[in-house]
């Protein structure tokens, strides 16, 4: 779902295991905080693959700095914006208009007119609506 290979997913699992709290929930929160997923959730892209491409092609700024690493983890208070040149892109504009139908997570605050989103809080398990059984993931990787 998140477009990661096995090795990178295992590294994310190991980081989630080291954090305090429930490992499965920590893993899902970290996956939601990835920059490519955040760009998808904001609505700049219609899919995670398209969001990953936007990030890799330098269309995204985090706190005013160019970030082209899809696995970059956003933090509370980060401001994710679209570059000035990219704002004229018809596909991106269509995606931003369609975000209303798809819905915006409560942990992101979007300013559609300025192509800017602020990370208000960390995502929690209740907001992740995908049918993921994190308990099974933890059981598999704990071996």
Quick recap:
With 143 residues, the chain is an alpha+beta fold. Helix content is 43%, strand content 12%. It has a domain at 34-122: RNA-binding S4 domain (Structural Genomics Hypothetical 15.5 Kd Protein In mrcA-pckA Intergenic Region, Chain A, Roll), CATH 3.10.290.
Question: Low-confidence parts, pLDDT < 50 over ≥5 residues?
Answer: none
Strand count, sense and closure of the main sheet?
Answer: 5 strands, antiparallel
The outline comes out as elongated
- CATH level-four homologous superfamily name of the domain at 34-122: RNA-binding S4 domain
* Oligomerization category of the chains in this entry: single chain
Give me the secondary-structure topology:
Blueprint (H helix, E strand, L loop, with lengths): L5 H13 L4 H11 L1 H8 L5 H9 L3 E3 L2 E2 L12 E4 L7 H13 L5 E4 L4 E4 L14 H8 L2
Antiparallel strand pairs: 1-2, 1-3, 3-5, 4-5
Explain the overall architecture.
- It is a single chain.
- The chain is an alpha+beta fold and 143 residues long.
- It has a domain at 34-122: Structural Genomics Hypothetical 15.5 Kd Protein In mrcA-pckA Intergenic Region, Chain A (Roll).
- 43% of the residues lie in helices and 12% in strands.
- It has six helices and five strands.
- Strands 2-1-3-5-4 form a five-stranded antiparallel β-sheet, covered by helices on one side.
- A hairpin with a 4-residue loop joins strand 4 and strand 5 (116-119).
- The longest helix is centred in the first third of the chain and has 13 residues, at 6-18.
- The mean pLDDT is 87.
